[in-house]
Write a structure and sequence with these properties.
The structure is a single chain. By secondary structure, the chain is an all-alpha fold. The protein is built from 10 helices and no strands. Helix 1 runs antiparallel to helix 10 and helix 6 runs antiparallel to helix 7. The two termini are 28 Å apart.
Length: 271
């Protein structure tokens, strides 16, 4: 797969970072300790930076980078812009926390970061939407990416609350709902692929073919394991953390499946 492992790394880092960024808004709503929020923001920012580095290294030549940024209709443009904006807002939020800014300021930045995080996750999925290519010729491919951002955010919010001794029973229910949402989103993408043009070769590879294990892993780790982790238990820190990590693993496996189906023919200058 060559340097296409970098795209898998990009998706893993960015989707994990966006999930953590989404959790910051929930932490602000509950007024979690500044130290907890600051550490979470710093980790989310580092994950987005790592994802951005993977994307830049994948493009390689500077002219490709500038060519992508010069064409707003491309998926990579959306990925770069949304990831960059999310990182900027997270950095501003972190600075505001460290400078003990007013609660209204940190609340606003956390909410803006969560909204941009969701847009970033959707942008990652939309970059693979290609009407001329079987398997990616449905916009429903965006749904699993966006849903995993929300699910990651729900489990990460639980982790932050547990660490802060501010856990509430409703948070576990939100995690369970988010896990179900991610499963429904993945099912919607599969259903849209089934009814799309030229679906037979794609389906033969993910249902009984060479990509069955990878796709099954995406379903299991991305949705089913988090659902199990949302089952009521005495201590929620470990299950919530496992759910968050499992969602990241599911994102890796889905991205790997997408990559193995065939390298996209990026058409930066076709529009």
């Amino acid at each position: 797969m060559g340097n296409d492992w970098l795209l898998i790394g990009f998706a893993a880092f960015v989707l994990t970072g966006t999930g953590l960024a989404a959790a910051l808004a929930a932490g602000e709503r509950k007024s979690l300790p500044i130290a907890v929020q600051a550490w979470a923001a710093a980790v989310a920012l580092a994950l987005l930076a790592a994802g951005g580095a993977c994307a830049v290294l994948h493009l390689g030549r500077p002219e490709l980078i500038f060519g992508a940024l010069a064409h707003p209709s491309t998926g990579i443009f959306r990925e770069f812009v949304t990831t960059g904006l999310t990182a900027v807002v997270l950095a501003a939020y972190l600075v505001a926390l460290l400078r003990r800014a007013e609660a209204g300021t940190t609340h606003m930045l956390a909410r803006a970061g969560a909204l941009l995080a969701l847009c970033t996750a959707a942008a990652v999925g939309s970059a693979f939407y290609m009407p001329w290519r079987a398997g990616w010729n449905t916009i429903a491919i965006v749904l699993p990416y966006a849903a995993w951002c929300l699910a990651g955010g729900a489990f990460a919010a639980e982790v932050l609350s547990e660490v802060s001794d501010e856990a509430e029973p409703s948070e576990r229910k939100r995690s369970a709902f988010a896990a179900l949402l991610s499963l429904a989103a993945l099912a919607a993408y599969v259903a849209a692929t089934v009814v799309s043009d030229g679906a037979a070769p794609v389906l033969s590879r993910v249902a009984g073919g060479d990509l069955t294990g990878l796709f099954a892993g995406a379903v299991v780790f991305g949705s089913l394991v988090p659902l199990v982790c949302a089952v009521p238990s005495r201590g929620r820190l470990l299950p919530a953390a496992c759910g968050f990590i499992s969602i990241a693993a599911g994102a890796v496996l889905l991205q790997w499946t997408v990559q193995c189906l065939g390298l996209p023919a990026w058409q930066f200058f076709a529009r």
